[in-house]
Design goal:
Number of strands: 0
Radius of gyration: 11 Å
Strand content: under 5%
Helix content: 55-70%
Shape: globular
Protein name: UPF0346 protein AALA52_05550
Family: Belongs to the UPF0346 family.
Organism: Lactococcus ileimucosae
InterPro entries: UPF0346, YozE_SAM-like, YozE_SAM-like_sf
Pfam families: YozE_SAM_like (PF06855)
Number of helices: 4
Largest sheet: none
Length: 71
């Protein structure tokens, strides 16, 4: 069974942002409203587009989602 996307992201948190995955992980960690239990691309993508209190390039999100699916 696949882990939630947030759980996958938290494996990439770091105090120094070394890449886009680390940046998104750090932003999601600081966002108390991030859909932490979701495994759904559309739900997370819509959240990032509409409700996230930060900006993140959704093209990069697509790439990170592909890595999540491969993990």
């Amino acid at each position: 069974m696949r882990q939630p996307f947030y759980t996958y992201l938290m494996r990439h948190r770091a105090p120094v942002e070394v890449d886009d995955v680390t940046r998104l992980a750090n932003l999601a960690f600081a966002d108390t409203q991030f859909p932490k239990q979701s495994k759904d691309f559309d739900e997370i993508s819509t959240y990032l587009e509409t409700y996230a209190p930060f900006y993140f390039n959704l093209g990069l999100f697509d790439d990170i989602w592909a890595m999540y699916l491969e993990a």
